[in-house]
Design brief:
single chain, Dna Ligase, domain 1, eight-stranded antiparallel β-sheet, globular, fatty acid metabolism, ATP binding, biotin carboxylase activity, ligase
């Protein structure tokens, strides 16, 4: 493998380019017209414009991306996260074009991409799943019957959903009827498929995910868990590893379950098994599988000392994972803060514009993954995340103190960001005491 095209933008494109450089592999970046001044264009070995400003005409244009990869002599394509990372058609097109898709097989992406099918697959593998409908519900009447059988509240989910979209909670039959129609419309608009399924809604839970890695030699390991409970509208804001809520026994059980799940589908590459951890019953249930590298992968890297992006590339080169499960050691504590170009004082209103000042934090235990710089213009066409601040220390308390200091040093001028939100979050007693669930931001207004 001599040359890799990175089918993405922003900080994850920069992250992958750096891994390629350290492995002695040439990198090819693509950029839209709106990203002409982007850092990922500047630091790649080669760079090509893939299309106009809108994602559908650029970063989602599969034919143009594969054409650039072939014409530039690439061996492989790394999709990063988002965009085409979990598009089974794209993975299949790469394979048909004799390009290595750095990720799982397209059949696996397809299998795990349909949420009700993925749930059934996990159930057959002996993985605990939340009580709910037996596959897709056929109609609103079918949904009513399922909700009556399992009891309210229930959660309505799009079979092809993801990223916090196509999900609504119903506490009564009236809400079920209303939200069923809204979710159906949203699913058809966002995913091109309006199929829905119903599950029991567990209210008092933590969002725990397990990082897994598989190779072509039949090896599968897990690299511990991440706690992603602090969310806004089902979008993760803060992630940490290890989870401060799990016992060692439960941690081991969840890890073993995740490996069993990955092995049941012959998983290859980096992936994440996401679980609902019920705080009332001390039980966990399969939520979904993400068949790609995650935004929050740096916290796992910090506590394991393993470069997950390099490992992805090595696995794609048919190298065996050089670790056994007993080799994986979780040491210290890491926390990641997603820095978004949004105004937390105005209901997180997006804030595009030109960055006038960009002073980054430093010191021991601080990592910053970003593609921003002073003078860079944030385009309004893509996701609002512009950086990830990660802190690492021996304990959670020390990692929080390091984060508080680092956030205080981090200056981004010219636009609004969520830095004040994260700084305030660290002063919240419930967060510091590890006494919260996924309703944290509904119960605590940290911007007051």
């Amino acid at each position: 493998m001599n040359k890799i095209l990175i089918a993405n933008r922003g900080e994850i494109a920069v992250r992958i380019i750096r891994a390629c450089t350290e492995l002695g592999i040439d990198s090819v970046s693509i950029y839209s017209e709106a990203d002409a001044d982007s850092l990922h264009r500047k630091i790649a070995t080669e760079s090509y414009c893939v299309g106009p400003k809108l994602s559908k005409d650029s970063y989602l244009d599969m034919i143009s991306i594969i054409t650039i990869a072939k014409k530039s002599g690439c061996d492989a394509i790394h999709p990063g996260y988002g965009f085409l990372a979990e598009n089974s058609d794209f993975a299949e097109m790469c394979e048909a074009s004799n390009l290595i898709f750095i990720g799982p097989m397209h059949e696996t992406i397809s299998l795990m991409g349909v949420k009700d099918v993925a749930k059934d697959t996990m159930k057959k593998a002996g993985v605990p799943t939340v009580p709910g409908s037996d596959g897709v519900v056929a109609s609103i009447e079918d949904a009513k019957q399922t909700a009556s059988d399992i009891g309210y509240p229930v959660i309505i989910k799009a079979s092809y959903g993801g990223g916090g979209k196509g999900i609504r909670v119903a506490r009564t039959e009236e809400e079920l009827v209303q939200n069923y129609k809204m979710t159906e419309q949203e699913a058809e608009s966002a995913f091109g498929n309006k199929s829905l399924y119903i599950e029991k809604y567990i209210e008092n839970f933590r969002h725990i995910e397990i990082q897994v890695m598989g190779d072509y030699h039949g090896n599968v390991i897990h690299l511990g868990e991440r706690d992603c409970t602090v969310q806004r509208r089902m979008q993760k804001l803060v992630e940490e590893a290890p989870s401060p809520i799990l016992s060692e026994e439960k941690r081991s059980e969840m890890g073993e379950t995740a490996v069993r799940a990955a092995k049941s589908i012959d998983y290859i590459g980096a992936g994440t098994i996401e679980f609902i951890y019920d705080l009332n019953d001390d039980r966990f249930y399969f939520m979904e599988m993400n068949t790609r590298i995650q935004v929050e992968h740096p916290v796992t890297e910090m506590v394991t000392g393993i470069d997950l992006v390099k490992m992805q590339i090595k696995v794609a080169r048919r190298e065996a994972i050089p670790y056994r499960q007993e080799d994986i050691r979780i040491e210290g504590h890491a926390i990641e803060f997603r820095i978004n170009a949004e105004n937390p004082y105005k209901n997180f209103m997006p804030s595009a514009g030109t960055i006038t000042d960009f002073i980054v934090p430093g010191g021991y235990g601080v990592r910053l993954d970003t593609a921003c710089y002073a003078g860079y213009r944030i385009p309004p066409y893509y996701d609002s995340m512009i950086a990830k601040l990660i802190t690492f220390a021996d304990t959670r308390e020390e990692a929080i103190r390091t984060a508080k200091r680092a956030l205080g040093e981090y200056i981004i001028g010219g636009i609004d960001t969520t830095i004040p939100f994260h700084s305030n979050l660290l002063d919240n007693e419930a967060f510091r005491a590890n006494d919260y669930n996924t309703n944290f931001l509904l119960e605590h207004d940290v911007m007051k």
